[in-house]
Amino acid sequence: MKRTIPLLxxxxxxxxxxxxxxxxxxxxxxxxxMIWFDILAVGAFVLGGGNLLKLHLEKISGQRPxxxxxxxxxxxxxxxxxIGLLEVGVHPNPMYPEYAWAGNYLEEGAGFWWIYQYVIYxxxxxxxxxxxxxxxxxxxxxxxxKNFEATLLLVTAFIVLLGxxxxxxxxxxxxxxxxxxxxxxxxxxxxxxxxxxxxxDRLTEWLALDGPTKGxxxxxxxxxxxxxxxxxxxxxxxxxxxxxxxx
Amino acid sequence: xxxxxxxxxxxxxxxVGALGWRFFTTNMSMTYVAGTDYEFVxxxxxxxxxxxxQPSDKDAKTExxxxxxxxxxxxxxxxxxxxxxxxxxxxxxxxxxxDISMEVLPIQSAFKSAGLDPSLVxxxxxxKRQIDVAAQDGLINxxxxxxxxMRVGALERYPEVGxxxxxxxxxWIAAFFTLAIMSxxxxxxxxxxxxxxxxxxxSAGYVMVAGFWTTFVKNLLVVLFPGAMRESLVPxxxxxxxxxxxxxxxxxxxxxxxxxxxxxxxWISRWPLAFFIGVTAGFRLIGYLEADFLGQIxxxxxxxxxxxxxxxxxxxxxGVSAWLTIWASFSNIVITLATLTGLVYFFFSVEHRGIxxxxxxxxxxxxxxxxxxxxxxxxxxxxxxxxxxxxxMFGNWLDLIQRI
Lengths: 247, 404
What we know:
The complex is a heterodimer.
Chain A: H1 4-22, H2 27-61, H3 67-85, H4 111-142, H5 148-163, H6 166-171, H7 180-185, H8 200-210, H9 212-236
Helix pairs in contact in A: 1-2, 2-3, 5-8, 8-9
Chain B: H1 3-25, E1 32-38, E2 40-45, E3 67-70, H2 78-81, E4 85-90, E5 94-99, H3 101-113, H4 124-136, H5 142-153, E6 160-163, H6 165-182, H7 190-224, H8 226-230, H9 248-258, H10 270-300, E7 309-311, E8 317-320, H11 322-346, H12 354-397
Antiparallel strand pairs in B: 1-5, 1-6, 2-3, 2-4, 7-8
């Protein structure tokens, strides 16, 4: 019951999804599996919320260090939840005005929109923005041109950082856009030639999006794909049972 | 009070004083909104109430056809005035608001430069009258009069323009949280910890609410209880949609998953967890094989010689561009070499010695270039986010630069 049934559930669910890709009759099974997966994910969110409450209520009741912050966590969690689920400030959908609950929960001006706009978005985007400082300082301490490989990484990063700013454009703006004059000088049948590819901003695009990064990224992606496929097979064949726990 | 505390107190007092002065003398953090009114009435045929219903005839329509009309859009309602239709039900009116600060603020600045009261902008009709008075008094010239009238006239399309205190307060709260997070650059402090606690609680609440409305209601409740949903949350549902009771299974799985919080029998949550793992493994296996493995191999098969033709403005081919051909071919050769040597590096079943070792070494070089480029891009992405936050602080909050 504790190990065999979940093992069977995982194997059957996984193979049904794979089958749905190859057998047209079972195509809808795969779609249904994905929808059930999403529904279950919402259940997992509820589990997460329950865990959050349990953990922080324990912290508050024990008055452990930092329990005041747990109060703030619970308050902000409950306020967001109540405002969002009760659709505070949401008006009916003008297409169905008689149904008070048919409005969009993210309607501009409603409570939940306000929380996202003025609380969640500024907080999360500033947290990510702060990473700019930490990544830069970590790089300053860790990046040393100790050998050829490290130098390659350092030089590429420098070119890309330079090329994504106005400094990169300004520094290489002297490179002429065409080489018509030079072609004329060497008596080569000329057409309009584009030398701008050598400018730092263009070189940055080439380095980061097209040239070596594309090739190396491709090798990495193929490696990742093979890794994911082998891990998935191990789960579906019952070789990897770590998700079942110990007992 | 020690020296450090004194310095911080002075900075705090000066900062609060400067903010207060700016708030009361400029448009700092002010958010202006335009309202759209909704006043719905249900109207139906006037004679329908006189005609008796015929319960014996099941096929006949016993209820008269009714429709909802927004009086804000159609205030005259000619059909009702002429007696063809009558009002059956009236709903409480409501107003929705949208941010028009980007339109209002430049007009207010123009008013200020012309020596007029910027608050007049909120009432376009009165503002036009004041513009005329100012022109008659010679305070503004004809060009200014035309320009200001045209600008303020653009606001007349909104039935209601005003200052939103909720959104203005929101800008202050967003600015406080932004500063609280940024304060961590100095050191860990209570402001940062408060902001951190809020982001944890609010984000957890946000994903639950979004999951409830977008997935739980639309994918589960609608399928299991279409009738009840049609009458409450999703009125646009088809009338003939039948319930699909197989969807009770995911509902049961949710209950089993939540059993984990119970003191006993938590092991039962392994069943839905196993479903999660199985479906994920199945989808990932197919998805990665198709998109990443086969897709990348297919995309990697590229020509090593790429002639780039130069086409004139008239559309005729003038020839092959030597430089662009060299560049495009070089680019494709680099991509191919990087892919092949990178794959050799990741192939650990063979010892990296001899030709394999040297090839893997070249692969490392390409990987290093890629990591350097990825690092540069990541840093610049974060810098872009930071500049957005600074734009918000200096624009939307302090009103020192143009708002975003």
